[in-house]
Amino acid sequence: MRTVILLLLGVHLAYAGTHSLKYFYTAVSGDIDFPEFTIVGLVDEGQFMYFDSNTMKVVPKTEWMRQKEGADCWDSQTQTATGTHQAFRNNIQVAKERFNHSTGVHTFQFMYGCELDDDGSTRGSWQIGYDGEDFITLDKRTLTWTAANPQAVITKHKWEALAVAEQNKGYLENTCIEWLKKYVAYGKDTLERKVSPQVSLLQKDPSSPVTCHATGFYPSGVKISWQKNGQDHHEDVDLGELLPNADGTFQKTSTLRVTPDEWKKNEFKCVVEHQGKTKIEDEIRTNGGDSVSIGIIIGALAAVVLLIVIGAAGYVVYKKKQGFKPVSGSDDGSNSSAQAVPRA
Q1: Chain centroid, CA 323 distance in Å
Q2: Residue 330 pLDDT
Q3: What is the spatial distance between Cα 256 and Cα 260, in angstroms, rounded to a whole number?
């Protein structure tokens, strides 16, 4: 296997030098073996807190949060989350009535957060989703709401009358950034470490697509691309989602769908860029080889996906269909980095 590592000067990857704080609130209605309500908090795409309506307790998910915040903090946040749970029970019922959904499994989700670059620039996003589709989104630049469907127009008018946009703008530009800085300071040794990815080309059998698998890297910003005969290649490429590993690092895949004949006649390479370094991989690992079995890798990926579904269902349910889309980005938030959502 040939792996080439190059140091690229002047390369600035997406997310490099960026810290982020995001929250995903999810209410679920229907016959499903899953908590009725969950909150997942992420710093730099890694989970740092969790709450669900079964345990009714906010808990830290990183060692640096356990060390920096005591029981009083988590008790206070538990009280806030418990009240938010009740609001979401109302909101999902309101949404179901507007969409005329009386049966089946449905989700109501609140997603928001902020980002801070090394140069001091900031971004914020704030949106609501229902059943994996956009419901209503804030444009904090114009302080306006975009209703994605007729059912959300009522909410748009209601929140405009309550000046909710102004409150959210203040939260995203001030409170959220302040808490992000605080959390980054808490977890500086962990959040600002740099770990290069391990890169492998995986293929189940000669007729299967070829998957470029980058894993074990930190921070999360990574770019995976393909080259064909030395030129950038974008056709028949499926880029996978960023997924967390159990040790706090990340993994991501990019799959190239080419025929065995195309692979033999051309020189394909996977190019992975991370923190100013590039790894190039062009030799495939298969089940017939003496290296790690792709069956084990795929099994591990499935296990990770299952863990995300268990620990951050709202994030996955929405992102699979729509994505957490930044908007041109309220509440005092004086004792918490989280934010309440008004009734729909």
Answers
A1: 8
A2: 30
A3: 11
Residue 219: cis peptide before it, omega within 30 degrees of 0: yes
CATH class of residue range 18-190+312-321: alpha beta
For residue 64, the 8-state DSSP code is: H
User: What is the Cα–Cα distance from 47 to 34, expressed in whole angstroms?
Assistant: 19
What is the average per-residue pLDDT within 240-257?
93
**The pair of three-digit structure tokens given for residue 1, joined into one six-digit string:** 């296997």
Residue entry with tokens 């749970």: 85
Inter-residue contact 324 to 22 (CB < 8 Å): yes
Predicted confidence at residue 18, as pLDDT, reads: 87
The dihedral of CA 7, 11, 17, 22: what is its sign? negative
Report the C-alpha gap between 261 and 129 in whole angstroms: 44
Global pTM?
A: 0.76
Each residue's pLDDT tens digit, 88-115: 999 999 999 999 999 999 999 999 999 9
Q: Which residue has the tokens 């959210």?
A: 168
Decide: 306 and 117 in contact? Cβ < 8 Å: no
**Is the Cβ–Cβ distance between 14 and 172 less than 8 Å?**
no
CATH architecture of 3-12+193-307: Sandwich (2.60)
**Residue 283 · residue 201 · CB < 8 Å:** yes
Cα gap 331→57, rounded to integer Å:
22
Longest dimension (CA), the chain: 66
To the nearest 10°, the Cα dihedral for 214, 215, 218, 224? 10
Retrieve residue 157's tokens: 């008018």
Nearest one of 26, 33, 29, 52 to 129, comparing CA atoms: 26
Residue spans per domain, the chain: 3-12+193-307, 18-190+312-321
Residue 115 CA, distance from chain mean position: 13
Cα separations (Å) of 26 from 12, 37, 44, 61, 339? 34, 6, 20, 18, 14
Q: Cα(9)–Cα(297) distance, rounded to whole angstroms?
A: 33
Alpha carbon distance 183, 162 (integer Å) = 31
CB atoms within 10 A of CB 149: 13
